[in-house]
TrEMBL record:
Signal peptide: none annotated. GO terms for molecular function: ATP binding. It comes from Mesorhizobium opportunistum. This is ABC transporter ATP-binding protein. Keywords: ATP-binding, Nucleotide-binding, Transport.
Length: 353
């Protein structure tokens, strides 16, 4: 059952369509990530779900209630912000208890709920402190606690990890995942970080300039992108995009001198047609396959693997993963890939399957 239905939601500021006919179904208990570059409308959509921001048209249904015209406090959602938004003069315990106090809950019950949430988030020793006496990661845990204690129908997160350093981000990311697995509540999570999206989501909604580019599981977006935008946005380092041309027989595309078999495609392409061949860095390290010569520029060593940056004979730059050797500047190496790993796009960036 869908716990949240966003149906044909549009919103504009002046002449700019910030959300353009956006529809998303969020299953009960699932974790959905809204992913896209800065300014694509993620926060606007999240605020629309929360009721913090009116929409121009469309419908928002939570559970079986049409909440489109209900104020935020009647929607049974709790939101966690990038900026934590804690009350500086209140202790951690008072911050977490605040929504309960607003509801008029008695002190004893409220105290028990705060303790239970503090235990779940492992912040019991911090309950007496003020926000300024906490690290960023601890502050965000408190903000999550304040959302949890409300026991809402729906949790909304707006880039909650963006203000944290890399190590803390990874740690808290895993904790949010664990939290979701233990409470199984519906969560909608906004980020511009594809790694967060891939690691957290049951389903990712990729947005660009207020429009949905694709909706799918992390693996389906990685493996089977509908367009070059999604292909480039998901995966790190990003997919390489190479200029290619359909060969005389129509069964291969040519990248420089290399011929890549495309007989598995069901679409018939015009001879000589310009296309883009997408191939991920991690798929350029095969033992056999189509060969490309790469003049090495820089090698980044990450310990278990390396990323080699370089240029093809035609001058196009490529990033390739290398697991067994670490070529140096000035060397020319042979990259090998399987045609089945390539993704072909037309000149508009639409996937050709
Ligand atoms: N109150 C506002 N008035 C005018 N433009 C706005 C307002 N809020 C957001 N925008 C614009 O809407 C677009 C989407 O913003 P936002 O939803 O915050 O993006 P994101 O969260 O994906 O970074 C941006 O171009 C932003 O400048
Ligand atoms: Mg935002």
């Amino acid at each position: 059952m869908a716990n949240l239905s966003i149906r044909s939601v549009s919103k504009s500021y002046g002449a700019v369509n910030v959300l353009d006919d956006v529809s998303v179904e969020v299953e009960e208990g699932s974790f959905v990530v809204l992913l896209g570059p800065s300014g694509c409308g993620k926060s606007t959509l999240l605020h629309a779900i929360a009721g913090l921001n009116p929409i121009d048209s469309g419908t928002i249904v939570i559970g079986d209630r049409n909440v489109t015209n209900l104020p935020a406090r009647e929607r049974d959602v709790a939101m966690v912000f990038q900026s934590y938004a804690l009350y500086p003069t209140m202790s951690v315990a008072e911050n977490i208890a605040f929504p309960l106090k607003m509801r008029g809950l008695d002190r004893k019950t409220s105290g028990e709920k705060v303790d239970a949430v503090a235990k779940l988030l492992q912040i019991e020793p911090l309950l007496g402190r003020k926000p300024r006496e906490l690290s960023g990661g601890q502050r965000q845990r408190v903000a999550i606690g304040r959302a949890l204690v409300r026991d809402p129908r729906l949790f909304l997160f707006d880039e909650p990890l963006s203000n944290l350093d890399a190590a803390l981000r990874t740690e808290l990311r895993a904790e949010i995942k664990r939290l979701h697995q233990s409470i199984r509540r519906t969560m909608v999570y906004v980020t511009h970080d594809q790694t967060e999206a891939l690691t957290l989501a049951d389903k990712i909604v990729v947005l660009k300039a207020g429009k949905i580019e694709q909706i799918g599981t992390p693996l389906s977006l990685y493996d089977d992108p509908d367009n070059a935008f999604v292909a480039g946005f998901i995966g790190s380092p990003r997919m390489n995009f190479l200029k290619a041309k359909v060969a005389e027989d129509g069964k291969a595309v040519l990248v420089g001198d290399a011929s890549v078999d495309i007989s598995h495609l069901t679409t018939r392409l015009g001879i000589g047609q310009d296309v883009t061949l997408g191939i991920r860095p991690e798929h350029l390290d095969e033992k056999q396959g189509v060969e490309l010569a790469l003049a090495v520029d820089v090698t980044e060593r990450l310990g278990s693997t390396s990323y080699v940056h370089g240029a093809l004979a035609g001058g196009e730059t490529v990033v390739a993963e290398r697991r067994e050797d670490q070529p140096r500047f000035g060397e020319t190496i042979t990259l090998r890939f399987l045609p089945s790993r390539t993704r072909i796009f037309d000149t508009q960036g639409l996937r050709i399957r």
